[in-house]
Model the fold of this input.
Amino acid sequence: MRQSKAVLAHRNHVPAAFAQSVSLAEHQKAADYTLAKQRLARYETLFQALLLLLFTIGGGLDLLARLSQKWVHYNIAQGIVLIGLFALANLVLGWPMAWYRSFRLEAKFGFNKMTLATFFADQFKGCLLAIIVGLPLLYIVLFLMQTLIEAHWLGGIWWLVVWLVWVIFSLLLMWAFPKWIAPLFNKFEPLKDDVMRTRIESLLQRTGFHSDGIFVMDGSKRSGHGNAYFTGLGKHKRIVFFDTLLKDMQISEVEAVLAHELGHFAHKHVFKQMIVTFILALIVFAALGWLLPQSGFYLGLGVHEPSHAMALLLFMLVLPVFTFPFSPLASVLSRKNEFEADRFAAKYANANDLIQALTKLYRANAASLVSDIWYSRFYDSHPGARERIAALQADTKAD
Done:
């Protein structure tokens, strides 16, 4: 609500830093788009809170547990069916919001390019992928929980073994994602522009970065938003540009955007984030290990059918409620990383080109140039537009 109030208050005035590069009409479109997203976000928050209450103290998880016990009799199979039923119910209940976001909100502002066929094809592929990839992992986790807990000498550290399995699985998934998973949803073609490819390869050599290729993704298949990212692990890292990003960018601006992304790797932001994620996951699994035998953990959340699978599901379901207060810390660290990556880009490319590229991205994505300070501190993973541009201009003057 604070963010909406701040955006609305500045709707009719383009910030001075962007007066020459963003028109009033573009600024007002960004404001209206931001207000619409904030409105939907409030409804989504209330809807997710309602679902959480229905699944827990409302008896939803108990109902799913009784159904799984009725259909199968093997403990691990019951757990798999329970979690599968929950995932399916959560998916179906979330469809109306997902449909509205794409086919009403995004379409209203000219961003949605997705058809209903693509929407449901994505849903089907996601479910199939969850079965092929997630089902074996879930079976291994439940098997280890049951086996290790029954083996008293290992029962107290079952969570450590499961955490190790999860870490290995996560690394394998990161390694496999660019080559086998991402192409299920989008087409990736090698960059064909020889001049741009030569410029990018020169930048890669200057920064000492090695990749498995430079690709263009058909992002316009689903959305008008533009972006660029790195994916993969080790020697299988790929540079990916959305086709919507390349459409309106000069070669020097694309180079500056890429230099920013390279800055994340140069400062080891990706590696540090991965390590932090693994450490936090270890703490989470240890907490689950402590809660597993506590009857109050289940009864206090309205569950009367305890099991290993129920403990896993219930814990992951309520965990975001308790980690939410730490969001500002994650946001602060993320914004710090973005500033470092910007400074790296200013060093190996051109700060003015990055400013121009960011301005084009703000315009193309209808990103708000105004943000409430407290909202930004709590939620924003990237610095505000004015703050970010000011920092880059300071770097330019310093040079």
Strands lie at 188-190, 214-217, 228-231, 238-242. The chain has 17 helices and four strands.
